[in-house]
Amino acid sequence: MKFSLFIGFVFSICLTVSAQHPLRLNFSFQSNNQPFVLANTIQDLNGDLLKAQDIAFYMSNLKITHDGGQVLDFGDSVFYVHIRNAIFDLGIQPVQSVESIQFLVGVPEHLNHTDISTYPEDHPLYFQTPSMHWGWTAGYTFFLMDGMADADGDSTPEVEFQLHCLGDENAQLVTTPTAATVYSDGTREIVEIVNIDQWIKNLDLTTIGFQHGSTGVNASIMQNISLYPVFVAPANLNVTEIKTYNGNVSFSTDPTSLTVFWSQINGLNTVKLYAVDGKLVDAIVDNSNTNSHVFRSLKAGSYFVRLLAENGEVLHQIQVVQP
How many degrees, rounded to 5, is the angle at CA 177 between CA 172 and CA 179? Predict the structure, then answer.
């Protein structure tokens, strides 16, 4: 009996250890239930036409609840979320089923007033374009949206607006019940919808001008996160969905380089190489239809190769081990 219990205990441990999967977080920007694309003219909730040139925000204090109330806590890690770069690898994690996600929109106060020049260039709190930093006293811009609005009704946005929101008191906590989409390679992807139309609700962008600060309009913009469905889970989320990638991807390695081959990847725009901790190692734009690329000067370790469409959609992903 004791032997049987021991075998069961060992099996349980092995199962727990082996049940680890790549975990990915994808912020999907939308407006009026449609994908939000920079430079496209859209209509806001007031009926005014606008065209965004940049949208970005900071996210931190990420916690993912999974598998019966277990919490995966990323501490005070900070993520710079730009509409063009809003997918994050969260590493190989012991997560089977996701139940909810929690994060702070903003930068934790103890990090918000540090010296930006002390960070390495690839750190989210280093200098960004557009600028997300207002100096030690003011701290970082938690939310930024720059664009043009149509003030004269001729269907062409011509009046410039800037929304730059900052201030420790304006950081907003978000909790979203959700689930992860499961891909055929075992990857768990959490998609969080960002409804820009709700974030800028009750604003007249045709007259708002430049709003940089932490009070008044800027405070109202950040409060919209708590008042309206700015961050939500996908409405059609299927917790049992198994997605397959299109096309074929393979690879070969030698001691210092990795060669990736692909075929039948429709709509491919960019091939990116990530370390297992989610750090971007290298990227190329596939504008020559070569169907292969050599990533050189690599250290030994585990990597993800991700093939992306122009809108950031993940078309294919593989995990490779560099000897």
Answer: 125
Distance, in Å, from the CA atom of 214 to the CA atom of 166, rounded to the nearest integer, reads: 5
What domains can you pick out in the chain, each with its CATH number? 21-232 (no CATH), 245-322 (2.60.40.10)
Closest by CA position to 308, among listed 23, 20, 26: 26
* DSSP annotation string for 9-56: HHHHHHHHHH--EEEEEEEEEEETTEE--TT-EEE-TTS-EEEEEEEE
Query: pTM score, two decimals?
Result: 0.75
Among residues 224, 229, 176, 168, which one has the least CA distance to residue 63? 176
Distance CA 302, CA 308 (A): 20
Q: What is the dihedral of CA 219, 223, 224, 226, to 10 degrees?
A: 170
- pLDDT above 70: residue 131: yes
